[in-house]
DNA sequence: ATGAAAGCGCTAACAC
DNA sequence: GTGTTAGCGCTTTCAT
């Protein structure tokens, strides 16, 4: 059986081959409108025979109804975002939407440029992380008329849709937990907070509750660059060198916390006897370490799922707080 | 200043506002063809004033030259694929290409369906993992006329372009290293190999060299489902319960190996004195553990970068072997 | 240097 | 139930 390996087959050719009109082919293919069973069979046979693949570029242009969903995310190194994409793409695929993405490296200016590039594809929705966008981004997004979903945070004013959880509350709850456990001299190890504003909100919440509880933060070590296990390890080493008598350390996320945990293992520092460790994210790996990591588990995959669901159902503007779960673990 | 918040501005409206023809606006915007500086200024002013965002759907249809690149990847949970995407998206963004993706869950049938859906967007290229595709996928891809890039493996017959490294060689080299270190009674802990065929190739290469070296694989534990730290831990526990006298264990990847490592830490099994551990991938976390993980580092980000580069430069069909690097570490 | 006009491949009225 | 036709918003000859 020969296939056309060259020029692409068009709907018009299928129509000719099936001996029907173009719109009939279109109806059959989209299973929309009415047509007889016999016609459908003739069309499908022609489609099969010619190896026809519909052109959604043309279809989208003609219908002015896009099924592209644009993700403008800060990073792909931090597992948080692949998790969100994973949740979203499952829902989108089921609904015949297509995911498009680009990566901002936590740079709001780059976010603006990439959002602009995305809008040129006339997506049904633009999915972003958090609320901190440039004025230009906001203006552009608003003017575009497409749905906007701000993910992974609910502490702010949503442009349209928002799905996630409160980072401030996560920080406060972490602090409350450590206070309740009796820790009084606490430190913080984090990564670049000016870029990762959600980590900044957690830190602010953490400090706030600590201060209220009468045990203000004793010391902090903030490393330049992205979060990583190595940076967590290095950060804890530096922090302890400066302030050796800390009894607990809060990390900007689980990657960082694991680094701290490894540092303690390597140095023989008893956990949590001498030093408690608390993270954020609830990564699976934290459950398999010799001592399960004390942390807060965030619904990352669910955030993506719900975000996608809201878009495909064209839900009214709203903020969905998915909450989070504190995992006691064994390191605090 | 008022902006049009409603109907989208078209190129024709910009042309009117600037008092020039549509084609002139098009030339200016794409900086292609000739036009006077004065005309350019007039056009740009109109673009600015109206808040015009070009419609790439229409542009792509008109030019029949797509700048979409489609990724059909097995998973987003396994950090390998986000890494590849990260490398690729950086290069694509620089070249004004747009990345589109969908996730197959390691299912070739789903891969076929998703590839078909992708082709409907008329991408410039389709990027896949490995060589194992259904007949239908291959036929469809070939007929599409777009570039095809098979990533993360070079052991097979490339459809068009291929970028990666040899999984078979990685398995063999791992075995050779362990043999050279003097281990003679080795086991394997892996995840579902029928789905992750690249892991299967590593395992096959590993066994081959072990047999040749006169120390055939002593035992294996293969877990259903995806790789994970928890599965690695569980797998090693089971393996040792059955065959306690192993002196080294090869894992299907670093996630699994870390699970094994944690198991040993928890049980107080001396590493590598009593048991050596060897992984695959060279994840950053493996360098921050109390003992650096012995593993093979793979160029995942580079794979994405090179794959994208080949596509944007429209390189001739070829296979690019990026190689890998054995990391001695301290666990073997 | 610039404009007019003919598509790109499809969808969506609107007739029949 | 089915065909005809007019766009969707651009790019691209081809004149001028």
Automatic annotation (TrEMBL), chains A, B:
SUPFAM superfamilies: lambda repressor-like DNA-binding domains, Periplasmic binding protein-like I. Residues 9-63 form the HTH lacI-type domain. Pfam families: LacI (PF00356), Peripla_BP_1 (PF00532). Gene3D superfamilies: 3.40.50.2300, lambda repressor-like DNA-binding domains (1.10.260.40). The keyword DNA-binding applies. It comes from the Bacteria. Keywords: DNA-binding, Transcription, Transcription regulation. One of its GO terms (molecular function) is DNA binding. SMART domains: HTH_LACI. CDD domains: HTH_LacI, PBP1_GntR. This is LacI family DNA-binding transcriptional regulator. It comes from Rhizobium herbae. The lineage of its organism: Bacteria, Pseudomonadati, Pseudomonadota, Alphaproteobacteria, Hyphomicrobiales.
């Amino acid at each position: 059986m020969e296939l056309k390996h060259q020029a692409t087959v068009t709907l018009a050719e299928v129509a000719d081959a099936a001996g029907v009109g173009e719109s009939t082919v279109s109806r059959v293919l989209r299973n929309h409108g009415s047509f007889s069973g016999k016609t459908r069979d003739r069309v499908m046979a022609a489609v099969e025979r010619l190896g026809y693949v519909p052109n959604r570029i043309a279809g989208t242009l003609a219908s002015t109804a896009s099924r592209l969903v644009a993700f403008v995310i800060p990073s792909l190194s931090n597992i948080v975002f692949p998790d969100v994409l994973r949740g979203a793409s499952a829902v989108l695929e089921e609904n015949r939407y297509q995911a498009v993405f680009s990566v901002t490296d936590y740079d709001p200016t780059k976010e603006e440029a990439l959002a602009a590039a995305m809008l040129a594809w006339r997506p049904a929705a633009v999915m972003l992380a958090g609320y901190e966008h440039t004025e230009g981004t906001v203006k552009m997004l608003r003017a575009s008329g497409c749905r906007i979903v701000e993910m992974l945070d609910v502490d702010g004013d949503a442009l349209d849709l928002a799905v996630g959880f409160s980072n401030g509350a996560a920080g406060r709850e972490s602090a409350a937990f450590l206070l309740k456990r009796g820790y009084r001299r606490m430190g913080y190890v984090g990564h670049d907070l000016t870029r990762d504003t959600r980590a900044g909100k957690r830190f602010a919440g953490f400090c706030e509750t600590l201060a209220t509880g009468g045990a203000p933060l004793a010391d902090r070590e903030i490393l330049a660059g992205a979060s990583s296990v190595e940076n967590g390890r290095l950060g804890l080493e530096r922090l302890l060198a400066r302030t050796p008598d800390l009894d607990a350390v809060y990390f900007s996320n689980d990657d960082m916390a694991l680094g701290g945990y490894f540092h303690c293992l390597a140095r023989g520092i008893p956990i949590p006897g001498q030093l408690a460790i608390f993270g954020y994210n609830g990564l699976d790996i934290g459950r398999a370490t010799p001592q399960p990591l004390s942390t807060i588990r965030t619904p990352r995959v669910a955030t993506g799922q719900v975000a996608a669901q809201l878009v495909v159902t064209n839900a009214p503007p709203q903020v969905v707080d998915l909450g989070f779960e504190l995992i006691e673990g064994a390191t605090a």
